[in-house]
Design a protein that fits this description.
This protein has 265 residues and is α/β, with parallel strands linked by helices. The protein is built from eleven helices and eleven strands. It has two domains: 124 residues, Rossmann fold (3-Layer(aba) Sandwich), CATH 3.40.50; 123 residues, 3-Layer(aba) Sandwich (Rossmann fold). Strands 8-7-6-9-10-11 form a six-stranded parallel sheet, sandwiched between helices.
Length: 265
Amino acid sequence: MKVTFVQADENLASARLRNLIPQRELKKLGWQEGHDVIVLSKHNWSWDERIRQAFRKVVFDICDDWFDTEEWGAHYRLVSQKADLLTCNSPAMAERIREVTGRDAVVIDDPWEDPQVLPHLGDGVLWFGNKANLQDLVEALPQIAYPLTVISDHPAKGITPWSLQTQQQALRACRAVVIPTGTRQCKSANRAVTAIRAGKMAICGDLPAYREIPGLWVGNLKDGLDWVMSEDPADRVREAQAYVHERFHPKRIGRQWHETLKGLL
């Protein structure tokens, strides 16, 4: 069985979690790179009918809700109809896809990618993420009354340029990670999972993907930050780590991809 994943920029979390790690795990299960299945994602490309001619089956993997955007909405709607199968990263995203396209999508989780670190305390609050999520942070700033480090690919004053190394260093140094959610409810829990694996408490806005993880703080950000600054969250972090380790294990996610893609052939 042969599969090709498109979108392999390792600087993008979605590329690592939805392409590079699944491809690595599928290789362990006997898959090779080739033309049985192509897994497409994101929007920095245009649909071409030659894709269907070159591959037996086409999968469109959707990990962000861009359906109603002027710039990318038409692309997502078109490829959603052209693909043989749709996949996504959360049940909420699957509901959104069904609402917009009338099609069902197979939910395949985002895996964790970093070694697990014992819970430990640090100083201040960390936010990290793609510039597309920065507006969520801006709107939440009145709730954050503690020293804040921001790491992103957005080139602006006061923002530390993103790299995996910089992110890992900041995770070691901080006391907690804050993750405002904004209005989009279809995201996966991948940033919270990254914080948990690093031994840190994640203080999260309300999101369906966060509610299932025991130990997380989900709700009012100010209350959560006040709590984590006055209490040792180690027990809750350990509880979350135990769940995350099994639930989002790369081997488990690789098996999800294996069963899904094998079912197409």
